Amino acid sequence: MKELLYHFIWFGVFFVIIFIVYFFLLRFKVKQKNYQSFGEMNYLIRKFHLDVTKMSYWKVIIPISFINAFIISFVATFVMMISMSMIWQLLCGFVLLMALIYSIYEIYGRHLQKKYGKDDIK
After folding, report:
1. Cα(26)–Cα(98) distance, rounded to whole angstroms?
2. Which of 16, 55, 83, 115 is deepest in the core (most CB within 10 A)?
3. SS3 state at 117
4. Mind giving me the DSSP string for 14-81?
């Protein structure tokens, strides 16, 4: 039980630190109007055909920061819980990281498509 509590505490610490750092990094990019280096949004705009004129970059900073912080924190905590050799931990972490990135960004992209999708493309 103590070990599970220990991992939950580490998850919370990782999550808060990564969320704050990533939020301020994205906020700085939006303030500088440096949208080309905003990789997650460029990916979502191209894949889900989002209308940039309807959408505000300020409104997507918090969800993207939350998603990235959750993914990184969850994978780091999960890998720390596995008691295997380092190679297997890295392999499991990489597979889990790719699966979470694809699935969570797919869900968020579909949400944005309903909200900010272009009308002429299905």
Report:
1. 21
2. 55
3. strand
4. HHHHHHHHHHHHHHHHHHTT-GGG-HHHHHHHHHHTB-TTT--HHHHHHHHHHHHHHHHHHHHHHHHH
Beta-carbon neighbour count of residue 52 at 10 Å? 12
Does residue 121 have a pLDDT over 60? Answer: no
Give the angle subtended at the CA of 19 by the CAs of 68 and 39, to the nearest 5°.
40
Global pTM value: 0.87
51-101 confidence digits (pLDDT tens): 888 888 888 889 999 999 999 999 999 999 988 999 999 999 999 999 999
pLDDT at 10 over 70: yes
3-state secondary structure 81-92: HCCCCHHHHHHH
At position 115, the amino acid (one-letter code) is K
CB 22 within 8 A of CB 41: no
